[in-house]
Amino acid sequence: MRRKLGYSGFTYVELIITVSIIALTLAFSGPSLERFAKQSKTKAAAREIYGRLQQARMTAIKENASVPAVFTNAGSGVMTISYATGGTQVLNLSAESHLRGAFISSNPLTITFGSNGTAYASRTVEVCHSDGDLKAYAIVVNNGGGIRIERRDQCT
Question: Which pTM does this prediction carry?
Answer without folding.
Answer: 0.69
